[in-house]
Amino acid sequence: MARRSKSNPEELLKKLGYRFEKPALLEEALTHVSAPQAAGQSYQRLEFLGDRVLGLAIADLLYRTFPGAPEGELSRRLAELVRRESCAEIAVDWDVGPHIKLGAGEAHSGERRNLTILADVCEAIIGAVFLDGGFEAARDLVQRSFKDLLEAPRRPLRDPKSALQEWAQGRGLPPPTYTVVEQTGPDHSPKFRVMVKVRGTESEFGLGTSKRIAEQAAARSLLLRESVWREEENGVA
Questions:
Q1: CA distance 234 to 164
Q2: Catalytic residue positions?
Q3: Does the structure show a pLDDT above 50 at 3?
Q4: Res. 111 pLDDT band, cuts 50 70 90
């Protein structure tokens, strides 16, 4: 069987925007445990380190990018950005697949497109940059690579009911109360109208095909009225 030719890292280095003082670190970050040349030295330790570096880098970026955001929002943004799917998306942007060193079986079964492996390699590369150039180099890599995700999260950061409860608690008020004021339609396809009440505010209403959906709609209406909820930041839950 013909041996796979050694990949040229130059294109990857260009995408990373970083040049290693110790190229062996990048080699290690790209080596899966199944690779014949691994000899027990896979990317797993760098992945462990990179996971922590990524979390700190993202937390630092969020703290500086959203100076007015409360802790809860920062935590939700952090969780969204460090999840496996986000890391795998960054690895695809870097086009790391052709550079990953795999065993023959894994290579033939398409593991270069495996989301878990791609996410692991993303974190391993961040860990490698941290060891090679320090935290500022790793943070700069994360900022360049995660910038679009940082500014435009793919999923709602929070649901309206949770946001309304946080808002009420922040004002020292009891939790919101929800009441079904009307149910129409047949049993197999009901429609609910729900009223939400927060002490000291006027009630709002929401419609939905389930109590949960109607409650979310009611909570969103109250938050919008109070200028607390912004659809462009939170999305539609």
A1: 13
A2: 51, 123
A3: no
A4: low
Spell out the domains of the chain, with CATH numbers in brackets.
10-151 (1.10.1520.10), 160-234 (3.30.160.20)
- Predicted model pTM: 0.65
What share of the chain in percent tops pLDDT 70?
86
- Residue 55 scores a pLDDT above 90: yes
182-210: buried (b, 16+ CB within 10 Å) or exposed (e) per residue? eeeeeeeeeebbbbbbbeebeebbbebee
83-102: average pLDDT: 91
Paired strand residues for 192: 183, 208
Contacts 24+ apart (CB under 8 A), 197-206: 198/164, 198/167, 198/168, 198/173, 198/222, 199/168, 199/173, 199/174, 200/171, 200/173, 201/226, 205/181
**Per-residue pLDDT at 39 exceeds 60:** yes
Q: In degrees rounded to 5, what are phi and psi of residue 196? A: -115, 140
In the sheet that 191-197 helps form, which strands lie side by side, from edge to edge?
177-184, 191-197, 204-208
Run of H or E including 169: helix 160-170
Q: How far apart are CA 87 and CA 190, in angstroms?
A: 41
| CA pair distance 207, 217, nearest whole angstrom | 6
pLDDT at residue 144 in the model: 94
